[in-house]
Design brief:
Helix content: 10-25%
Structural class: alpha+beta
Strand order of the largest sheet: 2-1-12-6-7
CATH topology: Fumarylacetoacetate hydrolase, domain 2
Bound molecules: zinc ion
Distance between the termini: 32 Å
Number of domains: 1
Radius of gyration: 16 Å
Number of helices: 5
Number of strands: 15
């Protein structure tokens, strides 16, 4: 395994109250965890991300993504597990997901398709306290689409690491999408997306439906 190879991709659903409510979902009483295949990852470095056409709405969800550098063990300081952070998109086939939810079926088809996890460049993890108060923003075609802060998470970074680590395991190379704030919406062909961390560029791409 190379130093930056991504292993498991864990994602947290409904971790911001206003986002849970905007989709008509209940606010969860424990973290809602799902996964994506590692093949879902694609860069966000000014590239074009190709998305599936004719399968209904593809929603953007900008999220703080944490990289695990040291395996979780019960009782440890969860801060020691994290070695980098990035902003990433948890792209979602919303119409497909609504059908899966109605049938009680797994979310893979809606959340795990190829290129469903565009990821900005890894950067220094500033620690939970600084992370909590730093604003992150998604610009779509130059207009603010989403704006959030980790302090608005229902389950904070430490609780997420502990929950995922204890139930599923967390090791070096795993990454964790921590949920999206309100403002999700359907992408349009040609949209230009830019992620900002504390107002600074943290990844960009455009999308094309093929
Ligand atoms: Zn998400």
């Amino acid at each position: 395994m190379s130093a930056n190879e991504i292993r498991n991709i864990y994602c947290i659903g409904r971790n911001y109250r206003l986002h849970a409510l905007e989709l008509g979902n209940e606010v969860p009483d424990e973290p809602l965890v799902f996964t994506k295949p590692s093949h879902a990852v694609v860069a966000m470095n000014g590239n074009v991300v190709e998305l599936p056409a004719n399968v209904g709405e593809v929603h953007f969800e900008l999220e703080i993504v944490l990289r695990i550098g040291k395996a979780y063990e019960p009782g440890m300081d969860t801060e020691q597990c994290i070695d980098a952070m990035a902003l990433g998109l948890d792209l979602t086939l919303r119409d497909v997901q609504s059908k899966l939810k109605a049938k009680g079926q797994p979310w893979l088809a809606a959340k795990g398709f190829k290129s469903s996890a565009p990821l900005g460049e890894w950067q220094h993890y500033p620690g939970a306290a600084a992370l909590a108060e730093t604003e992150f923003t998604l610009m779509r075609n130059g207009v603010v689409a989403q704006r959030g802060k980790a302090s608005d998470m229902l389950f904070n970074v430490s609780e997420l690491i502990r929950f995922v680590g204890e139930n599923y395991g967390l090791g070096a190379g795993d990454i964790l999408y921590t949920g999206t704030p309100a403002g999700v919406a359907a992408l349009q062909d040609g949209d230009q997306l830019q992620a900002l961390w504390a107002g600074k560029p943290a990844g960009s791409c455009s999308v094309r439906f093929v």
